[in-house]
Design brief:
- The protein is α+β, with helices and mostly antiparallel strands.
- It has a domain of 66 residues.
- Strands 3-4-5-6 form a 4-stranded antiparallel beta sheet, covered by helices on one side. Strands 1-2 form a two-stranded antiparallel sheet.
- A hairpin with a 7-residue loop joins strand 5 and strand 6.
- The radius of gyration is 14 Å and the shape is elongated.
- It starts with a strand and ends in a 5-residue tail after the last helix.
- 16% of the residues are buried.
């Protein structure tokens, strides 16, 4: 499994698990978080490649907690796409994303 850290919002492959672990425990990995009326939309950098095909990397995840779309999930590979993914999830549940 490949592990990554972020440098200026860009995923960088990390070869040393100790460096990765230290970075993960101290970094703010949130791309965005929005909450309203008990529903939360959270988009984070995962740090681990969650792809299955080996052709692309999946490093960001958006999830909805609570409400009609509870446990909704989407994943992507870049910070920019993650921001768009977050907005899409917020629009889905009627939460302002900005």
């Amino acid at each position: 499994m490949k592990i990554y850290i972020l440098k200026d919002k860009i995923p960088v492959l990390c070869e040393d698990p100790r460096i990765w672990g230290a970075w993960m425990s101290n970094a703010n990995r949130h791309v965005a978080v929005a909450e309203k009326d008990g529903v939360k939309v959270s988009t984070v950098f995962l740090g681990l490649d969650h792809s299955f095909d080996g052709k692309s990397i999946i490093l960001f995840e958006t999830m909805i907690f609570g409400g009609e779309y509870d446990q909704y999930q989407d994943r992507c590979c870049t910070w920019g796409v993650a921001e768009k993914m977050h907005k899409t999830a917020c629009d889905l549940v009627g939460i302002p994303s900005g």
